[in-house]
Amino acid sequence: MTVKLICTSHTPLMDFGSPPEMTEKHVRQVFQQLAEQIKAYDPQLIVIFAPDHFNGFFYDLMPAFCVGVRANAVGDWDIGKGPLNVPENTAKDLISALYDSGIDVAHSWRMQADHGFTQPLMLLCQDLQRYPTIPIFINCAAKPLPTCRRTVALGRAVGQFLFTTDQRVLLLGSGGLSHDPPIPQMGQVPPEVEEGLIAGRNPTKEARQKRQNRVIEVGKSLARGENIVAPLNPQWDDELLRIFCSGDIRRLASLTEGGIAIQGGKGGQEIRCWIAAFAALSVYGEYKAQRHYYQPIKEWLAGMAMVSAQPVTQIGA
């Protein structure tokens, strides 16, 4: 029974924005180093906590949390194709265990996983099918959002289930840190845009490309110093990384939606995925974390960070 955690920012602009050459080279080197760690660890089960960007989950039925029993890549930004390798029986056992713990998650036999799931899996595992993987969606974009306190409860319940398994488990948290992508908000956009937020599944290729082009242009504008969205916030990111690495789960649970929005922008709400992953890890006892990378990259609209952690009792074992 062993566990390892890796949390990482994601950004689809990695293949469409142009930060300084050495910056991009360093980011990709760190991802490769972490991928080599995972290959050596050879997980028997991955549990990934990730958000969605109105590609797979919509307001017609928006859960706070959802466990995928079967899942397929949406294919947005051309990141990952085909099904995830979900161990169905284990996923169903996890759902039952969460119910027993008082966490009423939704579950899906046809989850559509967008780049929030697929990018870290592709960068760290090189393939969506390489390892058995249970995807857990956390609503980080469609208000009202689940509280961080409830997100901690979800993570701990997942950790309690995993603690009983005799497997090498890898916890992945995907999202954040500070960033403010141009995600439309209900009540602030025309009816036709609202309809896309309510039931915009499987858009045409042209519609998806138009949406992605808008994000690319925002990244270029921010890089030019045109703050048409909330700027990245390295100070907030640094403090968050310190809290995650310190193991102060109670402090993470106290974070509020309003406070996160002010400091981290709309995309900063995705730190819930990191919170759930670290809360799951905390079930195994005191942990030691390592901060592998941090850099605010305007061209990618992201405070880019990568952190790993494992229980103190497993270090050197």
UniProtKB/TrEMBL annotation:
Family matches, as SUPFAM superfamilies: LigB-like (SSF53213)
CDD domains (alphabetical): MhpB_like
GO molecular function, one term: 3-carboxyethylcatechol 2,3-dioxygenase activity
Reactions mediated catalytically: (2E)-3-(2,3-dihydroxyphenyl)prop-2-enoate + O2 = (2Z,4E,7E)-2-hydroxy-6-oxonona-2,4,7-trienedioate + H(+); 3-(2,3-dihydroxyphenyl)propanoate + O2 = (2Z,4E)-2-hydroxy-6-oxonona-2,4-dienedioate + H(+)
Single GO BP term: 3-phenylpropionate catabolic process
Pathway listed: Aromatic compound metabolism; 3-phenylpropanoate degradation
Active-site annotation: H115 (proton donor), H179 (proton acceptor)
Required cofactor names: Fe(2+)
Annotated keywords: Aromatic hydrocarbons catabolism, Dioxygenase, Iron, Oxidoreductase
E.C. code: 1.13.11.16
Superkingdom in the source lineage: Bacteria
Domain Extradiol ring-cleavage dioxygenase class III enzyme subunit B per the UniProt entry, residue ranges: 5-303
Alphabetical list of InterPro entries matching this protein: DHPP/DHXA_dioxygenase, Xdiol_dOase_suB
Family according to the record: Belongs to the LigB/MhpB extradiol dioxygenase family.
Role summary: Catalyzes the non-heme iron(II)-dependent oxidative cleavage of 2,3-dihydroxyphenylpropionic acid and 2,3-dihydroxicinnamic acid into 2-hydroxy-6-ketononadienedioate and 2-hydroxy-6-ketononatrienedioate, respectively.
Subunit description: Homotetramer.
Protein name, entry field: 2,3-dihydroxyphenylpropionate/2,3-dihydroxicinnamic acid 1,2-dioxygenase
Species in which this protein is naturally found: Photorhabdus luminescens
